[in-house]
Amino acid sequence: MTDTTPLPVARTIADLRAHVSDWRRQGFTVGFVPTMGALHEGHLTLVREAVRRADKVVASVFVNPTQFAAHEDLGTYPRQEAQDAALLAGARCHLLYAPSVEEMYPAGATTTISVGGPAEGLEGAFRPQMFGGVALVVSKLFNQVRPDLAVFGEKDWQQLMVIRRLVRDLDIPVEVVGSPTERDGHGLALSSRNAYLSPVELETARRLNGILAEAGVRASDGVVAAEAWASEALIAAGFDGIDYVAIRKADDLSPFEGAIDAPARILAAAKIGRTRLIDNMAV
Amino acid sequence: MTDTTPLPVARTIADLRAHVSDWRRQGFTVGFVPTMGALHEGHLTLVREAVRRADKVVASVFVNPTQFAAHEDLGTYPRQEAQDAALLAGARCHLLYAPSVEEMYPAGATTTISVGGPAEGLEGAFRPQMFGGVALVVSKLFNQVRPDLAVFGEKDWQQLMVIRRLVRDLDIPVEVVGSPTERDGHGLALSSRNAYLSPVELETARRLNGILAEAGVRASDGVVAAEAWASEALIAAGFDGIDYVAIRKADDLSPFEGAIDAPARILAAAKIGRTRLIDNMAV
Fold first, then answer.
1. Which single residue of A164, A238, A246, B1 has CA 20 to 30 Å from A114?
2. Closest to A111 (Cβ–Cβ): which among B111, B115, B143?
3. Residue A144 and residue A1: Cα distance in Å, rounded?
4. Chosen from A170, A249, A253 to mutate, greatest number of chain B CBs within 10 A
């Protein structure tokens, strides 16, 4: 059961800053959890982590158009603000920040950010606009909220590495906290896009995590062979297409030249019908 | 005569932040003046403006390599920190921030910023790396210093417009203050690069301001004709080459389609020998 205490909502930068300034005057630290809404237990874990680490917590709900390509699911991405607000209140969040697209991107804006490094390849290859859009909106949100710390899920591991690089390269004074992936009882990483899956597709989706885990074990005998094995196993399990299965250096996501000689991560993106799922874990 | 009271110098981000945090705890506002050193009266005017507007003022001296192209004057750009520190102390600056290149750009950095809009054309066409370099270093410096306001000279008008756009597009909570161009008794805009000029070249350089002023008057009879007249007049005055003379909209530096129907600025870049000078003024 979630607490349904009404949560204050800020819809403008000015209103958001008024809340945060008031907290700062009282000496409170501020944590921040940026989301695209359609909240599930994975997001609430991030909020609870922020609540543990900071006195006051802002969660944003903003379906960021700059990180979707024209053919992607911007229009159908689930939006359910009232339910999100109730869930955030139950997780002891202090403020919901839900700006309009016009508030975030006024007419005439032209600035773009390219993170390079960890943003190249994998998701960056299949969704070329994504990490530029993420870097831009996170930079803006950090400047709007000015939190002490922000919590991101390891579910989007590459995004987490991109944000760490962005923060380091631009000297943004925000501590970036990564939080482990929440999974259902069958190992499926929680995702707002799981809502697109039919019961039969859900059975297939639940195989992803186990196949990546076994490929991670096989990686010690050869990275390329383990990646190929995982792709075949995913197709055999019922996936309709594999964007990538890759074993990479965990921090900058560069490929290994030969044997694994640094902390490694296996990452995958695969499709079931029209639904695209991602997952990753330490090797 | 300048006061030669020793000025505290911070060489690391950590040391800078310690100074600023101490001021913040005491409730002081903070102003910031970023420079590339080789300070002259133009810079000191910016510092005095910051001192008028904020309780404490940081000036940075950093010759930013990312805004120079390989063929430009990065290696020979004048460096004179002891003299700069004495001048800043005389202007009542409170802290000199002089980081090393390694402190500003640690190995492994990959993030870049493109401002677009006002960064396109004019200086952006002749020095394609410049405004990306400026946007990156100013973003970093703002995150390092976290000032309430920052003062920039109108001498670099296009840069000032680029920084205003950057700050607006990324929601950076810093007030950007433009300060009018300081000139010598003959109208020459003060510039660190004036030090490259021989006495004969100096005489030619001093004609730039008057020719732009007259072209501004002629602009009401036609923008293109006024630009062409100014280019010819500059060559006749002894300039060896004209990168551009352009009458543009003052805020976004876009060209006029026909008659001047918005606030306008005339901007020029011209060479005397190997020295490249820029200037601008309201039309």
1. A246
2. B115
3. 32
4. A170
Please state which CATH class domain B192-282 belongs to: alpha beta
Cβ burial of B129 (10 Å; 0-12, 13-18, 19+) is: middle
Are the CB atoms for B267 and B217 separated by under 8 Å?
A: no
Are B112 and A117 a contacting pair at CB < 8 A?
no
Per residue, the 3-state secondary structure of A22-60, as one string, reads HHHHCCCCEEEEEECCCCCHHHHHHHHHHHHHCCEEEEE
Q: What is the pLDDT of residue A23?
A: 98
Other C-beta atoms closer than 10 Å to the C-beta of B248 total: 26
B4 has pLDDT over 70: no
Top pLDDT among B182 and A4 is at B182
CB contact A113 to B (< 8 Å) = yes
Q: Is residue A82 exposed (0-12), middle (13-18) or buried (19+ Cβ within 10 Å)?
A: exposed
Measured between CA atoms, the residue of chain A closest to residue B162 is: A111
Q: Are β-strands B112-114 and A241-249 bridged in parallel, bridged antiparallel, or unpaired?
A: unpaired
Measured between alpha carbons, how far is A269 from A273 in angstroms, rounded to an integer?
13
Q: Is the pLDDT of residue A138 over 90?
A: yes
The count of C-alpha atoms lying within 13 angstroms of the C-alpha of B13, restricted to the half-sphere facing its C-beta, is 18
Q: Tell me: the pLDDT tens digits for B152-202?
A: 999 999 999 999 999 999 999 999 999 999 999 999 999 989 999 999 999
Domain boundaries, chain B: 9-179, 192-282
Mean pLDDT of A18-27: 97
Tokens of B59: 């000036």
Partner residue facing B111 (CB), from A109, A166, A252: A166
User: Residue B94: what residue type?
Assistant: H
Whether the per-residue pLDDT at B21 is higher than 60: the answer is: yes
Find, among A155, A157, A167, the residue nearest to A121 by Cα.
A157
> What is the band of B5 on the pLDDT scale with cuts at 50, 70, 90?
low
In the predicted structure, residue B1 carries a pLDDT above the cut 60? no
Q: Do domains B9-179 and B192-282 have the same CATH topology?
A: no
- Do the beta carbons of residue A172 and residue A203 sit within 8 Å? no
Please give the single-letter amino acid code of residue A101. V
**Residues A103, A65: Cα–Cα separation, whole Å:** 13
Q: For all residues of chain B together, what is the average pLDDT?
A: 96
Q: How far is A263 from chain B (nearest CA, A)?
A: 18
B43 is catalytic: yes
The structural architecture, per CATH, of the domain A9-179 is: 3-Layer(aba) Sandwich (3.40)
**pLDDT exceeds cutoff 70 at A3:** no
CB-based contact (8 Å) between B221 and chain A? no
Residues of chain A with C-beta less than 8 angstroms from the C-beta of B173: 17, 143, 146
pLDDT at A234: 98
Measure the CA–CA gap between A76 and A81, rounded to whole angstroms: 15
Task: Judge whether B146 and B30 are in contact, CB under 8 Å.
Answer: yes
